[in-house]
């Protein structure tokens, strides 16, 4: 029975609390949030106490912490949790600064505590199945990976301003997925992007439409495209070509119903956004973390995976601004 | 906050207990089962007490009961629950005897208690969406309904022997669905069937493959086909033709992944069986019952819906044996 | 090089003329039509002569005739062609009268000439592939066949009046397909039908919406549904269930293009009607006839196949009118 | 009635000859081929004469020529045909040298003869429909185009050696398609590629797997991926994202049949290669050329379209070799 504390009671914290409540081998002991009402509401629904973040990190009756607070707090909480010997689940991105993530890696390594980075998409049943089939040789050696990721609509400009930009906020998931699927590190990256959805996003220095080509040392290729807008719902697709075939994961639609009429055949929109599409992924992710800690296995994705994705996001931002490819091996 | 008692802690009772646990407006007070260990295990997981069925039916701290016990116990439990003024959710079939269902209807009507029959498929998100679109006129007046229902594999012969036969055990769901979708009562039924999957099923007096044609007074048609076997998973599909188009609900596959190789394009099997396919349906069904009781609305499907489906199942069995159509209006 | 004559230069005659023109092992020598202009126009496009039907049937420079004239002329032309020793391709239905078809069978058998009945759908690449896979054991022994056939819109009432009714004019194709796929003769048939599309069709004594259940001696089942209307195009689908799986053939859509927008995912209508959907089937059918005659093989579907489908159509009409099943073995 | 001559009686010449034979407004007068037997065989099947290429180009009874000979002969034939005042249909690529294509443009412009470049894919019914819907505003302004093109298997090494390389031989079609769909010229290109399918292709200086990112002045993006191998058949797909939705064209499979068994749901391979997949495209292309010449309209794609695609192919080859983006505006 893993005794857990939760830092951050916002949308994602609530998702994790619900998962923990449904498990037999974990218990949510306490929750914390900068907004006391948020902590109290989640505590009431979860049968947990409210405590301060500091108390949770220092508590002797808590074995593991879930960090779902704003990104700029992760660094301090990771340091405190590691020093207190707690297992750590931390939402992505670990930090906006690659140097600070490296510092976190060092403290986590020194403390020897389990650490998992919250790249939830690895746990989506479709993508996980696709990865398993690659591992079992269903398509032989991989030649080209193609990832499509499009949000249903842009976030508020205020969010974009503090998001680190599309590559660090959105495509970072796809960088991790590309590494997860390819099984060979990327050595070179070229990114393009523009503000085609909303000029205000461009005026804020960001892009809302982007594409990236990545290559490995052996010449394997990954194409990623992102957009902040998709009229038909959250577009989350992957296609992997190998020597003996292709694997692809399609979107999950709202229902399986099809209407046929004088205009043709009509199916539903894709599930609206990440809370719907990745509901099972979030559940499987937290379950995997808890199972790893309980059994002594090393959780993945690791803090190193979080670091690599951030390095790629920084490189993409640089490439988009300079118009030149970036070498990923000189980090 | 609806205080609930659960009779029957088997597979379906566990499904309902889990749903109730996740709701804010209901609480599972007590559970009962003929096997004490089953009751204790579910009670422990649900934070409920174990009591005898009689105690639950007589309890003053319980407002509603969920009856998930063997079919031959439903009659007595419905009578006791109705007389005790409790809201009743009863699994299908209510009883194998149409006369005894009528007796239950009478006692429920006399007591004035809410009653819901457990035809879970009405609450499947796909079928519910299909029905809503019919109601909104998406295809105009209905002309023909086609229902396909195939189990992944036959149950044990011991189950078949006490099941009442394919029409009462399996196709009863499709009879309810046909009525739910058509919106006009059926007046005539013709059934055929054979034991093509397993001769032993035929020797037991039952069939494992069957088809039925139903017609309404205005000439509208429903075709149903059932089989106890489908190599590719639980096959649950509906197609409805109307004056301006068709609506169809396809199976839910295990994942959205597709493999393309030298043999073509390959997708996953359909979800294995009813616990997987109708997971959301069971949740939505119990939620609807609780919401109806809490708000004072009349729950549907009603006990009368349970009666009509049983009448149709009896008629199908008779038609299959005699080889002649059966008039449904002379019941 | 098979030297051919064509009787009937209407829509279907033109289809056959075009096929013959594209083949290396056949030549269209002459065409005939009751309307001289129709014959002349087709002759000009085909590099053929115009002759009278009688001259074609008597010609010594013609080996095979294609009969695509109105149904009531088939009987005389078949007799004349058989007696003249010509190979015969005759459009369905061979005749509206089962007795007269039997008379044609006798004269054809006596003459020993090759004869093929124009059930084009057996040559649709999708249905032919489905049949081949059944024959190769892809799904084991067949248990249930389901055929859906819906025209895009009803023909003129004047056509319906002389069509012999839906079962003889439209479902006759599905009766042949059911026999083609099942591989075991049907022994019993139950039909229902109504005029739901257009009351005037009902006033003319016909139906526009119908369903039939067929069973074989061993209990295998076939379900057929027909409608004179389908808003989304010509609906031609087949589904076959066997002991180890299912085979199904879907409609051919106008293009493979899909539009995704705020309303969901949208594909094209099904191909409009039989000239589009069965373009390849008509070509493959005539090619098969010519190849059979050239190689001395026996063409199928045979005149006996034409007879059986007509017997089933008569039985369906009777069953629909009486409301009772019809025994097919007492013909 | 357009009187036509055909230069080149190989695979593609035969395709064009068959199309012309089926048309009412054109006649194939003569054919030529370096291999006399090839010319004679096609002439026999087409009802045409055999002549030398020079005689066809000089003939007064021929209005238009179809050039389907090896690429290195195009330049001379185009010059001769233009000077003889003939309408010209020329297969792609027009020439391997951009300068020589410019010279052809000049002579064609000076002669004022109609000219069409054989980019057949513009006439594929799926892609043409997709383009028409873009033009009608189905998805608003385009933001991103994604083109996937994969051959079923690599050609012989001897072919690759004289092909000009993957970008000039294969991706040139996709460059034309990108321009056709985007409606705005591209200004920048970045290409990557490797020999992942066969190392011998790499040793020959070519690649067999490649990806390209193109951008327009306004920031719109096109992603292209190519491979010389696809186990599941010829993979020809397009996806276009716009401000209000997405349009995509899927592959055409061999049949619509689906097999469901214990391993899941299985559909056929994609149509094998370009003769199958683009059968309608080749027919529509030649029909459009003939109609344009007959009506006096200007055929498209033009010789300028052929030039632009070749410029992009050259740029892609350079970018792949240097690892740097190439500016397309400085040509």
UniProtKB/TrEMBL annotation, chains A, B, C, D:
The entry lists its GO molecular-function terms as: nucleotide binding; oxidoreductase activity
Coiled-coil segments on the chain, per record = none
Keywords assigned: Oxidoreductase
Question: What is one GO cellular-component annotation here?
Answer: cytoplasm
Q: Could you tell me which Gene3D superfamilies the record lists for this protein? A: Dihydrodipicolinate Reductase, domain 2, NAD(P)-binding Rossmann-like Domain
Domain called Gfo/Idh/MocA-like oxidoreductase N-terminal: residue spans? 3-119
Q: Which segments constitute the GFO/IDH/MocA-like oxidoreductase domain?
A: 127-248
Q: Which domain of life is it from?
A: Bacteria
Q: Which Pfam families match?
A: GFO_IDH_MocA, GFO_IDH_MocA_C3
**Any GO BP:** NADPH regeneration
Whether Oxidoreductase counts among this entry's keywords is yes
User: Can the keyword Protein transport be found in this entry's annotation?
Assistant: no
Query: According to its UniProt record, which protein family does this protein belong to?
Result: Belongs to the Gfo/Idh/MocA family.
Q: What is this protein called?
A: Myo-inositol 2-dehydrogenase
Q: What organism does the record attribute this protein to?
A: Albidovulum inexpectatum
What taxonomic ancestry is recorded?
A: Bacteria, Pseudomonadati, Pseudomonadota, Alphaproteobacteria, Rhodobacterales
